[in-house]
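This follows on from our talk about sequence and fold. Please put the record directly below this note.
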Amino acid sequence: MSLTALILAAALAPQDAYALRWTPRRGGLTVYDTLVDGAGGTVRGSIEAAVEHRVVDVRSDGSYSLRSRSLGAVVRVDGGETVDDRPKVRTAKFDSFGHLTNVVGARQGLETYRQILLTAFVAPPGDVAVGGSWRYEREKDRPKGLAACRIEYKLLSVEAGSARVSFRFKEMEGASAQTAEGMWWIDLRSGLASKMEAKVSNYLGSPGASVSLRLTRR
């Protein structure tokens, strides 16, 4: 077979496809370290925190509930430092692909929903090959005050058991619409996110707040 024929055959060969989907188990526990670092106006600061997530319910349709609890945070603003040890317990409900459906718990406001939508990976509707893309769109939720949002994903590469997925997040309306661009690393065996890094504008709806965001699973 000629070199040209070999190249053509390789190009036409079926590619491996990946689910990139987590199957939660009741009682399952994960901990993520979070770093938010950036500035808004003349104020510069950072937040380092650890958050524990426990699966408290898995339903027959694959939807599930995660109870989150802060293990402590350090807030630094313009040279000052504050320790926040409030547990901030909340329970978020997701469908089987990771779409957020509801949040329950004391004083869950608009910022909570915006943060979860930004930091929750949404799996593709079917297996995807390298180079493949998918999109998640959420309609405006007037009762909660949430703007419609769109997240676009693309599987860039797979190496050493990890998928590297780029994403673009955009709230579709509002003068302080939150936007982000970044990368997810998804463990192929478990379907769990190993890491996420992003640059965020108007973080949690704060006009002009530009931050770097990083999540790392322990």
